[in-house]
Design a protein that fits this description.
By secondary structure, this protein is of the alpha/beta class. The protein has 2 helices and 8 strands.
Amino acid sequence: MKGLTPILRIFDEVKAKDFYLDFLGFVIDWEHRFEENLPLYLQVSYKNCILHLSEHHGDSCPGAAVRIEIGNIELYHAQLLSKEYKYARPGIEETPWNTKELCIHDPFGNKIIFFENVSSS
């Protein structure tokens, strides 16, 4: 196995791009529609992290959760807060399993947990 690409269900292209691109900082790698006015399927990425976003019924259920490992979570957290995104102001939580986690829900009910492993003292 070489990797994993989660598919997250979306319902509104504009809201999805506002959240994933403008707020989280992902970029669009490609977009696909079978015809104009049909559902959108696209790939977004942030460095080595790849997500697929789909308006197609049956590709995924809303309310999914994904965990994305990240380096320097405090810096990413500061970048997110500086954008003053209207619908989310996430915090960082230290967990009993030695991670720092930043949890955000997208506009479609999907949960994205960014985490960084911390060394125990």
